[in-house]
UniProtKB/TrEMBL annotation:
One Pfam family per UniProt: PhyH
Taxon lineage: Bacteria, Pseudomonadati, Planctomycetota, Planctomycetia, Isosphaerales
A molecular function GO annotation: 2-oxoglutarate-dependent dioxygenase activity
Protein name, UniProt field: Phytanoyl-CoA dioxygenase (PhyH)
Oxidoreductase in keyword set: yes
Source organism per UniProt: Tautonia plasticadhaerens
Protein origin, superkingdom: Bacteria
Assigned keywords, A-Z: Dioxygenase, Oxidoreductase
Cofactor(s) demanded: Fe(2+)
Amino acid sequence: MATVTDLSRASRPVGSLFSRNLAEDPDRFRLSDDQVRFFEENGYLPGVRILDDDQVEALRAELAEWFDPDHPGRELWYEYHSNESADPDRVLFHALGAWRIKPGFHDILWNPAFAVPASQLLGGAVRFWHDQLFCKPAKHGGVVAWHQDYSYWTRTVPMAHLTCWIGLDDSTIDNGCVHYVPGSHRWPLLPITELAGDMDGIREALDDEQWAMFQEPVAVELKAGEATFHHPLMVHGSFANRTDRPRRATVINAFRDGVRSDSDATLLEGVPPIPKGRPMDGPFFPLLYDPAGS
């Protein structure tokens, strides 16, 4: 099998897919004051254009190779699940570490269409945490059960994190788009439930007031190339895909520069530990954007 270069060695773009974006004025990508206020009030912000049509197609082409478990670079994943669900009729492809394997998924991290809004919502310079792929095949795509992202990230402090979910297909109610519980970013940290498990599993973790709010989640339908940002405590999930088209997405998880390790253990599979109390930095957690320009 051909050897794949580990692109985590390059803390900068390595290709040309986003060269046009990088050459443009960063202010072009800034969110409006109304968008920032919406995020602060509701805990999420939908409909932000991150990719153009050519970039979507390029990322789809890179992604296609990875559905075969015996693909080049497979040793570089932090996690790889051809189906995270235990049910073969409810398939959820989920993988972490695409940025290490293909140039498009590597370079999207420095795309100012992502990094500039992320800096505004985080209130400072942006560092990379990790990426994810969530893919639901046509007709038998599985669910992503209700959860809060930071429930999985308590090995880092303080909680100054942000998630950007980017559609590589149009995402709709019918094919399993993301749903949010507005205002749930003000809730305390909830226990972890099985990610590809029962959509009703979260009920036991909620009190009566939270459960009442939970009855009216918001479905976020997006065009391919659009993104939704959300707070690390935002309760969110997505239902099954029963349509005749796939629903593919890539996710960038980031944090504000200065977040520290809260564990002496390995933070991501295959990544050298960062001692507890030390800032999260180095080649696996590169600086993506600093509004101060330093």
